[in-house]
């Protein structure tokens, strides 16, 4: 009985997927050669280390919460949360753009190696997982406490990331 | 006003039923003939040869089935199921045609899709084999013809899902024709799987309804195809992005490095 119900459900789910694909699929991309070349020129900026360190600096919070009023501390927390979320969105968008360009460039390439593509996809999914995790933690505990809570989960994700990069066969790609 | 006697009402309903079935059946055939005529007239029959061969086959099969139904009704059920399996086999060729049309100009994406489709086929065949082995039914993996058709349609649905997923992943632009081909055939498969499952559950009591529903699903596909294959809309030509001349190793290395750089920002925020 359950077995048959699963088959009855497969039909509508499949049709819903198809309709979703038709209505959500993007019109043919307008990205031209210029964008591809800019990718090749490494136009994607490196993340600003100072900005990140400043945004999540525990010292700021410690000082403001000790030396100023509760109202000030609350304002700082709210503003930093908003900034951290905005930065996270930007970072995620940059990675998505990078993957999109990569897929656009390799889809016509005869040399493409499916296993390498799969590893890249896993790497990207790990990154998305990290971003989502950080997002939730920032919203739940604020940017200053986010680091403590996410530490354990990060170690797990970082290991996955490292393994994925090693698997690409290029340890030199690993960033500090 | 006095109601007509029961046998008379039943007979009126029977005639109405017959009329409805016949109208839907002939309307479907007419739509199919129009589609074929348009493709021949506008000279794009050859562009989607396998797809139009499938439509031609279904049309001819329907007409022959009508003859069998009228002249040798006892043989009709056997004829129907035998022809149905030929139709499913050609349906697989339609999926191959979709694959060819979509990924033809993109050898990289084609390679990934081919591997994925092969993996899906192997996994599903293994599942069927193991299932049959488990139930000691190696000689007949399905209970009856309808069950077998349901399994085969589910495999087709899985292949189409894989194709759609990779079309979305590689952002492959599709023309109206191929999109309509996928959507129409997909709707037909989805409705068929659903109907066959209900039929399996309800048994013969569902048979009279199922007779009509089978045509409804195919008519839905035909309407979709009429809307999207009325004239020739090929897939957009790929822009020379990347291209075979660019080294894949360099491209993938650069992507991995850039992704690592972006990711390192997120990672740093979480470091103690």
Structure description:
- The complex is a heterodimer of chains A (176) and B (272).
- Chain A is mainly alpha-helical and 176 residues long.
- Helix content of chain A is 78%, strand content 0%.
- Chain A contains seven helices and no strands.
- The C terminus of chain A is likely disordered.
- The termini of chain B are far apart.
- Chain B is globular, with a radius of gyration of 24 Å.
- With 272 residues, chain B is mainly α.
- Chain B has eight helices and no strands.
- The N terminus of chain B is likely disordered.
- Chain B has a single domain, classed as Rhopdopsin 7-helix transmembrane proteins, CATH 1.20.1070.
- At the A-B interface, helix 1, helix 2, helix 3, helix 5 and helix 6 of A face helix 4, helix 5, helix 6 and helix 8 of B.
Summarize it.
The complex is a heterodimer of chains A (176) and B (272). Chain A is mainly alpha-helical and 176 residues long. In chain A, 78% of the residues lie in helices and 0% in strands.
């Amino acid at each position: 009985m359950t077995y048959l119900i699963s088959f009855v459900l497969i039909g509508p789910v499949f049709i819903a997927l198809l309709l979703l694909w038709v209505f959500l699929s993007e019109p043919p991309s307008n990205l031209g050669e210029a964008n591809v070349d800019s990718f090749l020129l490494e136009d994607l900026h490196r993340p600003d280390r100072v900005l990140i360190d400043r945004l999540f600096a525990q010292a700021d919070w410690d000082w403001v919460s000790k030396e100023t009023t509760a109202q000030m501390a609350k304002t700082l927390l709210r503003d930093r949360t908003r900034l951290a979320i905005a930065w996270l969105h930007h970072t995620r968008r940059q990675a998505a753009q990078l993957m999109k360009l990569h897929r656009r460039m390799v889809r016509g390439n005869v040399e493409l190696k499916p296993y390498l593509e799969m590893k890249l996809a896993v790497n990207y999914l790990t990154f998305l997982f990290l971003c989502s995790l950080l997002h939730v933690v920032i919203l739940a505990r604020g940017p200053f406490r986010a680091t403590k809570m996410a530490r354990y989960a990060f170690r797990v994700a970082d290991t996955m990331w490292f393994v994925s990069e090693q698997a690409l066969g290029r340890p030199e790609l690993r960033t500090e | 006003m006095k109601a007509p006697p029961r046998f008379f009402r039943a007979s009126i309903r029977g005639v109405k039923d017959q009329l409805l079935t016949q109208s839907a059946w002939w309307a479907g055939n007419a739509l199919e003939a129009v589609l074929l005529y348009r493709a021949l007239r506008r000279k794009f029959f050859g562009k989607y040869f396998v797809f139009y061969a499938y439509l031609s086959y279904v049309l001819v099969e329907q007409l022959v089935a009508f003859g069998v139904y009228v002249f040798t009704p006892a043989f009709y059920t056997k004829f129907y199921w035998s022809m149905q399996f030929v139709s499913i086999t050609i349906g697989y060729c339609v999926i191959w045609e979709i694959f060819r049309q979509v990924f033809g100009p993109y050898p990289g994406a084609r390679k990934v899709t081919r591997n994925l489709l092969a993996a899906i086929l192997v996994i599903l065949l293994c599942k069927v084999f193991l299932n049959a082995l488990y139930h000691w039914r190696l000689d007949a993996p399905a209970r009856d013809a309808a069950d077998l058709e349901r399994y085969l349609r589910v495999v087709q649905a899985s292949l189409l899902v894989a194709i759609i997923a990779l079309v979305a992943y590689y952002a492959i632009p599709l023309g109206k024709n191929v999109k309509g081909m996928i959507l129409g055939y997909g709707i037909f498969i989805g409705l068929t799987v659903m109907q066959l499952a209900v039929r399996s559950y309800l048994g013969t009591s569902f048979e009279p309804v199922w007779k009509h529903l089978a045509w409804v699903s195919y008519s839905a596909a035909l309407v979709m195809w009429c809307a999207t294959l009325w004239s020739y809309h090929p897939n957009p030509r790929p822009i020379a992005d990347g291209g075979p001349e660019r080294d894949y190793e360099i491209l993938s290395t650069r992507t991995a490095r850039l992704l690592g750089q972006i990711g390192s920002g997120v990672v740093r925020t979480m470091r103690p």
